[in-house]
Specification:
The first copy, chain A, is an alpha+beta fold. Chain A has ten helices and 13 strands. Chains A, B: It holds the Pfam family AIRS.
Amino acid sequence: MKRTEISTLGEFGLIKVLTEKTKHFHPQTIRGVGDDASVWDMGEKYLVCSTDLLVEGIHFDLTYMPLKHLGYKTIAVNISDIAAMNARPTQVLVSLAVSNRFSVEALQEIYEGIHTACQNYKVDLVGGDTTASRSGLFISVVALGEAEKEKITYRSTARKGDIICVTGDLGAAYMGLQILEREKQVFLANPQMQPQLEGRDYVVRRQLRPEARTDIIYELADLGVTPTAMIDISDGLASEVLHLCKQSGLGAMIYEDKLPIAQETYDTAINDFNISPITAALNGGEDYELLFSIRQEDYEKIKLHPEISTIGYFTEPEKDIHLVLRSGSLVKIQAQGWQHFQEKK
Amino acid sequence: MKRTEISTLGEFGLIKVLTEKTKHFHPQTIRGVGDDASVWDMGEKYLVCSTDLLVEGIHFDLTYMPLKHLGYKTIAVNISDIAAMNARPTQVLVSLAVSNRFSVEALQEIYEGIHTACQNYKVDLVGGDTTASRSGLFISVVALGEAEKEKITYRSTARKGDIICVTGDLGAAYMGLQILEREKQVFLANPQMQPQLEGRDYVVRRQLRPEARTDIIYELADLGVTPTAMIDISDGLASEVLHLCKQSGLGAMIYEDKLPIAQETYDTAINDFNISPITAALNGGEDYELLFSIRQEDYEKIKLHPEISTIGYFTEPEKDIHLVLRSGSLVKIQAQGWQHFQEKK
């Protein structure tokens, strides 16, 4: 029998192969696979639903990830998917598979983080499943939310000329991961060494305890702005811009000098790792900021918002996706997201 | 720091400890943790949502579980939770974590089963997540459904005198598992041996490819019967009766001679394993039949239904839960469900 390695397809190729035979039987299913969340017509509103599976050793490393933060982060990243639909999160369900390496107290730590996140995002923990695993920790989270029908925002509905916006700043979570990985190696080489995290608190926190930008969803509603398209930035800006362009059938121009990068991210990239902060912003994952587009006439409403940066605009598809460097020259953007499926050695 | 082993609490004790701090922020949350599914008030109807995490080596053994059946079963067992709320399933989301032992073709096999189940139960596959695992296969399924507000059925709403009913027959999936495990051991000892499954097709099929009893949900609606309480039988009849009694604050009388046991289950239990078929029915898991109660005045409506057996009735809580043996004597029923969390050796 033919054997195709998963790594030859990549995550998105794999999803396509597995779900291409999908048929929908219910007219209430408005969106299925292919956006941040599925959409079901409840009558007056839309129900959105998203799920994520987090795997020890792939998505998190308990050497430096405190259990409480892990609990918080699993909720935040799922809420982020709900926010990316311009929806309001309402409920979560959490399933754990744990090996007997974990004690009841360890799971209670995880749940402390989960409860804190539920409190912060005002979502109700309403169910889940708890089971054993043969090795390692697996967390599966389901998030539900509600969207007003006229305000739900997809990936596929951006239009030429729309202004591209991003919340917060980019690349910090990736630089935080580099710091934590470096300190882990130092510790493994010499367990007497204390981790050097001073002055790197921000990037480390962005990695360990990201927040979903539900605040922006509520503020955009207050400002009377409905994004024309939206996605959350989990795999790096480049990959997410590509998703919006592909699904909306557009090209894009992104301006290097407009990319929001925190000073600490900048310093960490340059001083500690000698890499370009732009690379961290474009290809570093796990920022969980929102990438969205607005109509040009909405620009005035958001231009003074301290947490929203306008970074470019959508163009005809023929123009592809380009980064406009400070020098004025253009570089074509290609995605280089996370690759969890590695080639077999 | 104190270390409590998970095995000392058991699954239900653990869930209690982890979720006791849960607060709900939304009045639309009608039910959270503690029933077959969560319940959200959508306005005209209730949304129900359930999730399950299936772990290789704990919930399934790929030595004898064909991948297609595994895909089918993961959907069926989640749909069963929706049915147990007297709700109609509408959507599923499926997440996989797979090690590089699995090929694209293997995952396609799993999805064939998933698609077939979606077709049979008329549910829409609308999302999920696909990721790597360091070892083994993990499948997380979310199922959504809709219930009419006046017909939703909880575990906690049975009343004294209600008649206890069960669908289909019991103990078959457990006997199927015993057969498959026995043949696995034979094969491991001598790989030239062919498995002896003749005459055991029914019990084996019940283990490998169970069905959710959505048919009964639709038929009860046609008959004008709304159960007073319901649960699906995943951990054996005894455990589920205990849940209904505990949550409804009742006792129960169950009649040994009323328990529906298929001839093949009976023969397999007695001839192949020398165990009591009643034990298989009471404590064997994974039947995915429905256990429910009805008002006495509804008895006439269901008494001729070939797939529904009346097996007893609810009593005052002081009477505990008893099995009335053929001899007329009473045996107190205690749960002995699945214990996934084993004591550390």
